[in-house]
Amino acid sequence: MNLKANFLGLRSSGRIFHTDFEAAENLAKKLLSSIPSASGRPVVFVCIGTDRSTGDSLGPLVGTLLEDKNLTGFYVYGTLDEPIHAVNLEERLKEITVKHDHPFIIGIDACLGRLKNVGAIQLGDGPVKPGAGVNKELPAVGDIHITGIVNVSGFMEFFVLQNTRLNLVMKMAKTISNGIYQASLLHPKGRWQELVNLNEEEQTN
Fold first, then answer.
1. Range of the domain at 143
2. Domain annotation covers residue 33
3. C-beta neighbour count of 116 within 10 angstroms
4. pLDDT (0 to 100) of residue 1
5. Is residue 158, in this structure, part of any structural domain at all?
6. How sure is the predictor about 68, in pLDDT bands with cuts at 50, 70 and 90?
7. Is there a contact between 78 and 63 (Cβ–Cβ < 8 Å)?
8. CA-based angle 56:61:64, to the nearest 5?
9. In this structure, how many other beta carbons lie within 10 angstroms of the beta carbon of residue 80?
10. CB-based contact 143:36 (threshold 8 Å)
11. How far apart are CA 141 and CA 162, in angstroms?
12. Is the Cβ–Cβ distance between 153 and 113 less than 8 Å?
């Protein structure tokens, strides 16, 4: 889990709260505008975390929900059955790069943040850095990243994670997975630009 994403030099393209109206649709728009549309690179989601900690289960919950949706055009790694965590992260990343030719990787992880931002989903440029908040040297993951702020940072983060409400994590996981699913319906059909253009028109009106 990336406990302090905002302090690692990662540039976020904006926050979407899971309670926002059309939160999943807005995430899909941002995601499609960040994925190369015609590069031919396989799009791979790496969902990081473990169900041994409630707060850190966001990643594998997203992966499991996506697995149930039978995505087309996107690849997903990291589920409740086969989590990607500190112990196996480096090995699994090697497997992914061997299996997929020059993949465009999107790292998904939980993080802690300010109280006012709890429940926010962030999509940003650059990789997510798992384990940074607990002094673990782990590989950075992703060309871009999606993180969910599941609780408050600043004091005894490990115990904060353990006491994070599953209800919140599950709601955020559903929003993220629904957003990715909606993006998958448009991306392989080349219709992603329609959604991006629509978003731009809404902002100018």
1. 5-28+39-194
2. no
3. 9
4. 62
5. yes
6. very high
7. yes
8. 145
9. 17
10. no
11. 23
12. yes
